[in-house]
Specification:
The complex is a heterodimer of chains A (243) and B (391). Chain A contains 11 helices and no strands. With 243 residues, chain A is mainly alpha-helical. Chain A has a single domain, classed as Orthogonal Bundle (MetI-like fold), CATH 1.10.3720. Chain B folds into 2 domains: 248 residues, P-loop containing nucleotide triphosphate hydrolases (Rossmann fold, 3-Layer(aba) Sandwich), CATH 3.40.50; 115 residues, CBS-domain (Roll). A 6-stranded mixed sheet of chain B has the order 6-7-8-3-9-10, with helices on both faces. In chain B, strands 2-1-4-5 form a 4-stranded antiparallel sheet, with helices on one face. In chain B, strand 9 and strand 10 form a beta hairpin. Chain B starts with a strand and ends in a 7-residue tail after the last helix. Classes of the chains: A mainly alpha (243), B alpha/beta (391). Chains A and B meet through helix 7, helix 8 and helix 11 of A and helix 2, strand 6 and helix 4 of B.
C-alpha cells in the first residue's frame, strides 16, 4: 500500500545531485527530526534495560524460566518491525507509544541474554565468598553480582541503542516523526540530498550514542580500566616483583 | 570452641558426605581437616558457617547452636578463606578487605583504615596495592588479600578451605609460614581444610584425618599422628618418612653437643693433633677469633704438615650446614649431620658462634629420649581427652 504512493526515481545522468544549500535552509526541521530520532533510539533500550534486569535476575534464579523467555523475545525480534507496528496500532494507535513499545520489545531480545550472561559470568567462588562474608541474597545481587555484570550488560545496551536508532526511522511509515521522514520525502520528491543527509545523521547519531555509552561504561567499571593499564604496565610490574 | 555433635550431611540423591561426625575444635588452635577428595572435609567446614546445612546433628560455636543464629550475622563473625580467593573483581584491594566492616556499618574511612592495618599485617605493600584491583596481583598476593579480608572484622573463628592449594610450592610454603606467624599473634580458632598431609602437619595444632565416606580416622597432634597412626589407613595416608618427619616436632635443645675438639685457627698443627689424639677425635673443628666455625681439620692430615704450620694453614673440610639448638628441630640437626662430610653437625647460637657439635651416636640418643617422652605425653594427653578423640 505504501509502495503505491511512491513514484519511481528518475535520476539525471552522472553523479547524484547533492544540494548543499538544502541543509541550512531546513536546519530547524533537520534538528527536530534528529532529536525525535534520538529519543526513539534511546528511550526504548533504557526501558528495555529496566525490564530485562529483573527478568534476567529471575531467569538466573529460576532456571526453568529462561528458555521460554528467551524464545519469546527472539520470536518477537524475528517479526519485521513494520508488522509489529501494524499489530500494535490497533491497541496503541498511530503515535510515539507504538514505536516505543515495539522498539522496547526488540531491545529486550538483546538485553535479556546479556543480563543473564553477565550474572552467570559472576564466578562461583565470588558468589560463595560474598555469601560467606555475610551478604544477604538481595545485597549480594545489588552490590556484587550486578556490578560485575555491567560490562556484558553495557555491550548489549550498545547494540540495542544502535539498532533502535536505525529502526526508529521505520516509525515514520506510521507517521511517527524521525529521520525516516527524509527517506520517504526524499524518495517521493526524487530529491537524494535529503536521503543522504538522513543516512549521515542516523550514522552520526548511532556513533555518538555508542561513544557516550562507551564512556559511561568506563566510568561505571573502573576495574576494567585497570585491566587495560595492567596489560600496558606488565614489563615494569615484572621488574618490580623481581626487585 | 567449635563442637560437632553427631553431624550428618546426606544429599537428596542419597550420598552421605559426612556421617555422624563428632569433633571438637579447641579455641585458639588450628585444626586441620585432611583427607582424600570426597571425604566430607569441605562439607564439614561449610556447615560451620551454614553454607551447607546439616541433615542431622548440631554444631555449636562457643556453646551456641549455629542453626539458631541469623546466617548473615553468624557469617560476619566467621572469617572465610577459599582456594580461588573469591575476591571481588570490581573492588579495590582495600575495599575488598573492608567488606565485612562495611557490612557491619562502619564508616568508610574507618573501614579503609582497618583494611590498611590488615594489609600491613599480612605483608602487603599498602602504597602500591591499596588502590589496585585483584586481577593486578599475583596469586600469592591475592591469597594474602583473601586472608586479610577474612580477618578484617576480627572474627574469633577463621575457616580456610584449601587456602594455599592454588599457588606454587614456594609461595605456598611462605603463606604457610605466614599463617603460623599470624596465628602466634592472633590466636584465632582456625579450621583449615587441605588434601596435603604435609601442610596439615606443618600448620596444624591438631589434625583430623578423614576417611572416604565422611568418617574420622584419627584426631591427634601432628607428632602423634606421625608417631602413632591408629591404623593402616592413617599410616598410608601420612605417607613415607614419617619417622624422619616426626623429628620436626622434637627440639634440638636437648642434644648433647659436648665432645669434639674445638680449637682456634691460631693453634699450631702439632699441638692440635696431640690434643685430638688424647681425646680420640678424628676431626678438629677449627674456629676463628669470634668462635665462628671455619672448617674441619682431619687429625690424620695434621701429622703430614710442617711442624710450624697453624690450623689456619691446613686444608679444611667445609663447615656445611649449621643448626641452632635453641630454635631448630632434631630433624634439622640430623639433616646437617647427614650433609656433613665429617658426619658431624655444628650447633651455633644466634651470633653464629659454635656451641658444640653432634654426631650420629649423640643424635640417636636424643631421638630415642624425645620419642619416649612424646609417647608418654601423648598417652597422657589421650587419656585426658575424653571428647574430640577418635570417633
Amino acid at each position: 500500500m505504501v509502495a503505491g504512493r511512491l513514484r519511481p526515481a528518475r535520476r539525471p545522468e552522472g553523479l547524484p545531485d547533492v544540494v548543499w544549500s538544502w541543509i541550512p535552509q531546513n536546519w530547524t526541521q533537520i534538528w527536530q527530526y534528529t532529536l525525535d530520532n534520538a529519543l526513539l533510539g534511546l528511550l526504548p533500550p533504557l526501558i528495555g534495560l529496566a525490564i530485562s534486569v529483573p527478568l534476567g535476575v529471575a531467569s538466573v534464579r529460576w532456571r526453568l524460566l529462561y528458555p521460554p523467555l528467551l524464545s519469546l523475545t527472539s520470536a518477537i525480534y524475528a517479526i519485521p518491525s513494520l508488522a509489529v507496528f501494524v499489530v500494535l496500532i490497533d491497541y496503541t494507535g498511530l503515535g510515539n507509544l507504538t514505536v516505543i513499545i515495539a522498539l522496547t520489545l526488540f531491545s529486550l531480545c538483546v538485553l535479556l541474554p546479556n543480563v543473564v550472561d553477565g550474572l552467570r559470568g559472576v564466578s562461583e567462588p565470588v558468589r560463595q565468598a560474598a555469601t560467606a562474608m555475610g551478604y544477604s541474597e538481595v545485597r549480594r545481587l545489588v552490590q556484587v553480582e550486578l556490578p560485575i555484570a555491567i560490562p556484558v550488560v553495557m555491550a548489549g545496551l550498545r547494540i540495542a541503542v544502535v539498532s533502535s536508532i536505525s529502526l526508529a526511522s521505520v516509525g515514520q511509515l506510521i507517521g511517527v516523526s524521525s529521520l525516516g521522514y527524509f527517506f520517504l520525502d526524499g524518495f517521493q520528491r526524487d530529491f537524494p540530498t535529503e536521503i543522504y543527509a538522513a543516512i549521515v545523521l542516523v550514522l552520526v547519531l548511532a556513533l555518538l550514542s555508542d561513544l557516550v555509552l562507551i564512556v559511561v561504561g568506563r566510568i561505571l567499571t573502573p576495574w576494567q580500566r585497570g585491566q587495560r593499564h595492567a596489560r600496558a604496565r606488565r614489563p615494569d610490574e615484572l621488574a618490580g616483583e623481581l626487585a | 570452641m567449635i563442637t560437632f555433635d553427631s553431624v550428618t550431611k546426606r544429599y537428596p540423591d542419597g550420598t552421605v558426605a559426612v556421617d555422624a561426625l563428632d569433633l571438637e575444635v579447641p579455641a585458639g588452635k588450628i585444626m586441620v581437616l585432611v583427607g582424600p577428595s570426597g571425604c566430607g572435609k569441605t562439607t564439614s567446614l561449610r556447615m560451620i558457617n551454614r553454607l551447607v546445612e546439616p541433615t542431622s546433628g548440631t554444631i555449636t560455636l562457643d556453646g551456641r547452636n549455629v542453626a539458631d543464629a541469623n546466617p548473615s550475622q553468624l557469617r560476619r563473625g566467621i572469617g572465610y578463606v577459599i582456594q580461588q580467593t573469591g575476591l571481588f573483581p570490581h573492588r579495590t584491594i582495600e575495599d575488598n578487605i573492608a567488606t565485612v566492616p562495611l557490612l557491619n556499618h562502619w564508616d568508610r574511612r574507618r573501614a579503609r583504615q582497618r583494611a590498611r592495618e590488615l594489609m600491613e599485617l599480612v605483608g602487603l605493600d599498602i602504597a602500591g596495592m591499596a588502590k589496585r584491583y585483584p586481577h593486578q596481583l599475583s596469586g600469592g598476593q591475592q591469597q594474602r588479600v583473601g586472608v586479610a579480608r577474612a580477618l578484617a572484622a576480627d572474627p574469633p573463628v577463621l575457616l580456610m578451605d584449601e587456602p594455599f592449594s592454588a599457588v606454587d610450592p614456594i609461595v605456598r610454603a611462605s603463606l604457610q609460614d605466614e599463617l603460623i606467624r599470624l596465628q602466634a599473634e592472633l590466636h584465632k580458632t582456625v579450621v583449615l581444610v587441605t588434601h596435603d598431609v604435609e601442610e596439615a602437619i606443618k600448620v596444624g595444632d591438631l589434625v583430623a584425618v578423614f576417611r572416604p565416606g565422611g568418617h574420622l580416622a584419627q584426631v591427634d597432634t601432628p607428632a602423634r599422628l606421625l608417631g602413632a597412626p591408629t591404623d593402616e589407613y592413617v599410616r598410608d595416608f601420612v605417607g613415607f618418612d614419617r619417622g624422619i618427619r616426626r623429628l620436626s616436632f622434637f627440639p634440638a635443645a636437648n642434644l648433647d653437643l659436648a665432645g669434639d675438639t674445638v680449637l682456634p685457627a691460631s693453634t699450631p698443627a702439632s699441638e692440635a693433633a696431640a690434643i685430638a689424639s688424647r681425646a680420640g677425635d678424628p676431626w678438629i673443628l677449627v674456629v676463628d677469633l669470634g668462635r665462628r666455625p671455619v672448617g674441619w681439620a682431619a687429625v690424620a692430615d695434621l701429622e703430614l704438615v710442617p711442624s710450624e704450620t697453624t690450623l689456619a694453614g691446613v686444608a679444611l673440610a667445609p663447615v656445611g650446614h649449621t643448626f641452632r639448638p635453641d630454635t631448630d628441630s632434631l630433624r634439622a640437626a640430623l639433616d646437617a649431620t647427614i650433609l656433613s662430610r665429617t658426619e658431624r653437625a655444628i650447633g651455633v647460637d644466634d651470633r653464629g658462634q659454635v656451641i658444640g657439635t653432634t654426631t650420629y651416636e649423640r643424635l640417636r640418643d636424643a631421638i630415642r629420649i624425645a620419642e619416649e617422652a612424646a609417647d608418654r605425653g601423648g598417652r597422657a594427653a589421650q587419656a585426658r581427652q575424653t571428647t574430640g578423640g577418635i570417633a
